[in-house]
Design goal:
Blueprint: H1 3-8, H2 19-25, H3 32-42, E1 46-50, E2 64-69, H4 72-78, H5 81-91, E3 99-104, E4 118-123, H6 130-133, E5 137-146, H7 152-155, E6 161-170, E7 173-176, E8 187-191, E9 194-198, E10 203-208
Parallel strand pairs: 1-2, 1-4, 2-3, 4-5
Antiparallel strand pairs: 5-10, 6-7, 6-10, 8-9
């Protein structure tokens, strides 16, 4: 099951423009520190995010992102581009104008994007998408994934990808910790006001090998 959708079932219904708050901000599911760390370590210029739901947090750190999803909630959310851009402008850490694009498609279909054109693929809690989206990633480009509802189990066996780093959240701070042997145990914790996301997941950064 998509963890994004699982959290969504636990929050109160809200207007389209409030969905980001209820799903991500109020539950602590934004993972800002994760994207801040990726920005500082690798500084990818172009990012592809299939199965995004309404998780626009990456746009706070990366200037150029293409979001892909087929669900009704994503369509309704991104159909209000002024609201999306306003939210990004409120939190982005860079001065340049944020570029984002939403593609209303199943990521298993052809997305009409140029091959080898993205620096980073986000494969986060949306199932296995690497076999459908890997051709959009540049040689020496990166994949951020996890072992929970994601691509780690398939990528780790793939000879075209090299594991660079493992990342996890310790005391609220994301940091690189290589040679981790345990699996993540992320969960939703009930609170007086709803639910809180406890991020004990292990994240993996892979590099797509360049073939000569």
């Amino acid at each position: 099951m998509d963890l994004n959708q699982n959290i969504n079932r636990s929050v109160k219904p809200a207007a389209v423009q409030d969905q980001y708050y209820y799903i991500y901000q109020s539950t602590g599911f934004e993972r800002k520190g994760l994207f801040e760390l990726i920005k500082k370590q690798f500084n990818p210029e172009t990012v592809l995010y299939p199965g995004c739901l309404v998780h626009i947090t990456p746009s706070f750190y990366f200037k150029h992102i293409v979001y892909v999803d087929k669900c009704r909630q994503s369509i309704d959310f991104f159909n209000h581009p002024a609201n999306v851009s306003s939210l990004i402008d409120q939190y982005k850490i860079y001065r340049e104008i944020a570029y984002w694009k939403f593609i209303n498609k199943d990521f298993t279909q052809e997305l009409d994007l140029r091959e080898n054109s993205f620096d980073l693929l986000l494969s986060l809690f949306s199932g296995r998408l690497i076999e459908f989206c890997e051709h959009y990633i540049k040689p020496n480009g990166l994949i951020l994934t996890t072992s929970l509802f994601s691509d780690h189990d398939s990528v780790v066996k793939h000879q075209d990808y090299e594991l660079l780093h493992q990342i996890r959240c310790v005391n609220g701070k994301y940091r690189i910790e290589n040679n981790i042997t345990t699996k993540g145990t992320s969960k939703l914790k009930p609170t007086n006001t709803g639910f809180k996301y406890i991020d004990n997941e292990i994240y993996y950064i892979y590099k797509k090998k360049k073939h000569f």
